[in-house]
Design a protein that fits this description.
- The chain is mainly alpha-helical and 293 residues long.
- The chain has three domains: 21-87, Orthogonal Bundle (hpI Integrase, Chain A), CATH 1.10.443.10; 92-211, hpI Integrase, Chain A, CATH 1.10.443; 227-289, no CATH class.
- Helix content is 49%, strand content 6%.
- The strands form two sheets. Strands 1-2-3 form a three-stranded antiparallel sheet, with no helix packed on it. Strands 4-5-6 form a three-stranded antiparallel sheet, with no helix packed on it.
- The protein is globular and about 65 Å long.
Length: 293
């Protein structure tokens, strides 16, 4: 018999072992993706690392649990009560690459149209332009300082800056136009020498998304072309420094970049993602500890 009883140890009284973020990124980067089984294995690791799912949660996932339109994943968990979690950015990036690659197979082959949709979808994702703004672009709108958007909403004109990779992609498209003998003053042209209609661009995008399994059959909602604009806005906020003043300035700049009449309109585009949730958790921890948030 002990005079002093032992102190009860709780299961969560000590921090569990963990893998540091740098090592996780090295593991993900080392994953091969040449075969379907390797792509599957990388997807499993991403779900474990980005969303913190249990192995059993991943085992029980069904294709119907993925809502491509809203960008959420339904997970039942231990309680069997479904939770909706945002899909990681890696998933969105992979989907965009798949759609852009599939666009190169749009008929007619050996003509400009496949390249037009390939680079059009890429520009929408990289800049958050409205589809009407992108289709109204002229070749002369690509200038040294960026891209002049003349056909904005409410007839507003603005200049948007371009990442070097985006500029290089547009220059590659113009070179392809010249090589294939495509003419016309519009930046993005079809075989007729004019920009595709907005309806046609939507139809091509939906068909590609459906062919790749990111949309259900006709009549069911799913991923839209306009979702690329939403994604750009969210990714832009994720890249912003975490302090409140920086976020306020960033939101004002993002509103102008997107061509919104008011910054209030910009907030409607934003939603919780793993990155934003992690930042919120860090700020909450600082507040709990009494540190400046």
């Amino acid at each position: 018999m002990h005079a002093i009883p032992s102190v009860q140890r709780y299961r969560l009284s000590t921090l569990p072992r963990y893998v540091d973020p740098a090592t996780i990124e090295e593991i993900i980067a080392a994953c091969p993706t040449d075969r379907p089984v390797e792509v599957r294995d990388k997807a499993i690791i991403l779900l474990l690392a980005r969303l913190g799912l249990r192995a059993g949660d991943i085992r029980d996932l069904l294709l119907d649990d993925i809502d491509w339109r809203s960008g959420h994943l339904k997970v039942k968990g231990k309680t069997r009560r479904p939770d909706r979690l945002p899909l990681p950015q890696d998933v969105g990036d992979a989907i965009l690459r798949a759609i852009m690659t599939a666009a190169l197979d749009v008929p007619p082959q050996d003509m400009i149209s496949p390249h037009t949709y390939h680079y059009l979808f890429g520009l929408l994702a990289a800049t958050g332009l409205r589809i009407s703004e992108a289709l109204a672009l002229q070749c002369t709108d690509l200038v040294e300082d960026g891209l002049i958007v003349r056909n904005g909403k409410f007839s507003k004109q603005r200049l948007i800056a371009l990442q070097p990779s985006t500029r290089q992609a547009l220059e590659a498209y113009l070179a392809m136009r010249k090589k294939l003998g495509a003419t016309g003053s519009d930046l993005f042209v079809s075989i007729r020498g004019r920009a595709p209609t907005k309806t046609r661009a939507h139809v091509v995008f939906v068909r590609l998304a459906r062919h790749l399994g990111y949309r259900g059959p006709t009549g069911k909602s799913g991923m839209r072309l306009h979702d690329l604009r939403h994604t750009f806005a969210v990714r832009s906020l994720e890249a912003c420094p975490p302090d409140r003043e920086a976020i306020a300035h960033h939101m004002a700049g993002l509103s102008v970049y997107l061509g919104h009449a008011s910054v209030a309109n910009t907030y409607w585009y934003l939603e919780a993602t793993p990155v934003l949730l992690r930042d919120i958790a860090a700020a909450s921890e600082q507040l709990y500890r009494g540190e400046a948030a």
